[in-house]
Batch of 2 targets.
Target 1
Amino acid sequence: MSRKVFLVGDGAVGSTFANDLLQNATVDELAIFDVAKDRPVGDAMDLEDITPFMGQTNIHPAADYSDAKDADVCVITAGVPRKPGETRLDLVAKNVKILKNIVEPVVDSGFKGVFVVSANPVDILTTLTQKLSGFPRNRVIGTGTSLDSMRLRVELAKKLNVPVAKVNSMVLGEHGDTSFENFDESTVAGKALRDYSEINDDVLAEIETDVRKKGGKIIANKGATFYGVAMMLTQIVSAVLDNRSICLPLSAPINGEYGIKHDLYLGTPTVINGEGIEKVIETKLSAAEHDKMINSADKMQEVLDGIEL
């Protein structure tokens, strides 16, 4: 059976993801759709040049929505990117309209695979993708706080001078201003984070600020962030294609976890495989962190309540 990915959006994130995907997964077909028709043509020719090293992939540069029909995964990176000084939630009105114009024709094509969303605000757009598509909730995934969590692990590794692979710590909740770090449960090399002499509340507050502001700093310096999220997309899509179970903090459908009563997607540890979401994990949180998770859900619901589809 052909392993096919349909990519909507060939900007900085989309094109970087396509490059990462071909180098890290076996893909028989990659169909690239973008409203700017010339960009996918150029990217397809550029990507062809790496196939002698990575294996043959049939790349469709002039795709339209009908090409999604037999895809295993539809990856949505299309949307207006964040500008310096903007928050992810500032993008809601702009990107909801774009999302609606994507999801409906993809579904109409006969697509039966898994939606993977990375456009911002990702928790809002992932929730709306499920509602617009009518798909089972396990077949819609958002990148969520996976990128935030990688940034957190990097900062902790630097602070403690340890390999990043030894850091077990996550950012949860919204991929945005109401996110929070699960410092109380974090471990480094199997040892509780708070047991390290270098760690105190002031240090953790500084790390939290650095993690939260890193995306904005990258945008201020180079105009966009794309390497990290493209690699997270590659991890997600390859797990779906390979039917390989992995666990990441993703935008996942909340169904009473953490006592949240809203019907939405939010960043929490999530096991994914070939069917999409296999399991949503309600991870252990301290009382203070639990309150932050509830607050994050409440803020997302406020935004959702103001959206007319």
Target 2
Amino acid sequence: MYRNVSLPPLCLLLSLLANPLFADEINKQTPGYADHDPKRHIREVRAFTDADAQSLPPPGAILCIGSSSMRLWNSDIAKDLAPLTVIPRGFGGSNMNDVIHYMDRIVLPYKPRAIVLYEGDNDIAGGVTPEHFRDTFLEFVNRVHHRLPGTRIYVLAIKPSIYRWNLWPQMHAANLLLAETCEQHADLTFVDTTGVMLDPKTGKPRQNLFIHDNLHMNREGYLLWRDLLKPLLLQQELRFETQP
């Protein structure tokens, strides 16, 4: 299922990536995840599992997981998406491969009815190609559905940022591949957040949406995400909320 998409055709992005300037940049980077050891996140993951040992979140909630753009939403996302029951599990600096690595600890034990996922920022910045990122996303989907059939997955588009604007052609191509993939699967929904984050006059990221590092969003940026994601989740997920 494909939601709120206003992206140009994939062929246009592939032509950009064929440009020697972009190709040279990609060729200098790592093609996969070999240089990104998931163990670097063990302390954050242990903090989650320690909390779960004290009080495991209720099954059938909505798991919100992903990299630092999700982690920085951890403290507000339950309020922003209320009355939906959500489990915030963003962990900073993560990539799609990290989520797969730790899914037995911070995905599957919750038995979520739905997952909101944000990854790709660090994948592309680490040299992962759009195609490899798409394939890793599909591996995550397949593993979730093998254990939890029918789980709905809402994947947020890789955001445009000032700091990583030079990587936007690759990130945009990855978004197109995610969108195409979601359109082919009934349990997958692509949520395009990119249009509202770009200045309509310049076509570049809006400066008022970022904190000082020009990479992570401020509260205004998260309110934009909320206003795109919440109506969709209320439409699709509210009916599944457990009644008190």
